[in-house]
Specification:
Elements (H helix, E strand, L loop, with lengths): L1 H8 L4 H10 L4 H11 L4 H13 L2 H15 L3 H17 L1 H16 L7 H10 L4 H33 L2
Helix pairs in contact: 2-3, 2-4, 3-4, 3-9, 4-9, 5-8, 5-9, 6-8, 7-8, 7-9, 8-9
Length: 165
């Protein structure tokens, strides 16, 4: 399967691959920035491509998550999925519930599993944070998470160079 994906991506510009990886809910910035650096991109380019990719789904999902999930909940399998997703997000997003938009920005800014733009969108929907506040909070969180991941990657690269000399 991975060979199929690699062959499919062969010939796709590396910038597009970084944007795509940044937009995916599993990898987001945590995967896109290191991948961009492994492609040999300078840190600033890795940062901006990854941030741009991570922000691609934000506006559509902020508008569409609620109506789409409401319609899909009519089917048992989707109802279970959204129940699981919303319950998991509720447990992880106490900060969002308590501090609303500021909490959402902090929640998205922490580059750990089960945080990030995608989960932030779910939390914004779940806690009924207005679009403009949710959008600004998620953008601020993504920018901050990108800085943290970039700093950690840069530190790792500096450490690797120091060890290998």
């Amino acid at each position: 399967m991975s060979d199929l994906i690699i062959n499919w991506l062969n010939g796709v510009p590396k910038e597009y691959i970084v944007l795509l990886l940044g937009a995916l809910p599993i990898s987001e910035l945590r995967g896109a920035i290191p991948l961009a650096l492994s492609f040999g991109f300078p840190l600033y380019k890795a940062y901006w491509l990854s941030v741009a990719g991570n922000l691609i789904p934000v506006i559509p999902l902020l508008f569409l998550l609620e109506p789409v999930s409401s319609r899909l909940r009519k089917f048992k399998v989707w109802s279970r999925f959204f129940d699981w997703l919303f319950e998991r997000t509720k447990r992880k997003a106490e900060t969002v519930q308590k501090y609303e938009a500021l909490g959402l920005a902090l929640f998205v800014a922490i580059p750990l599993p089960v945080t990030g733009a995608w989960t932030g969108i779910v939390a914004a929907s779940l806690f009924k944070i207005r679009f403009r506040y949710a959008f600004i909070a998620i953008v601020c969180g993504v920018l901050t998470a990108g800085l943290i991941v970039s700093a950690l990657c840069a530190l790792g690269m500096i450490s690797w160079r120091a060890i290998s000399q």
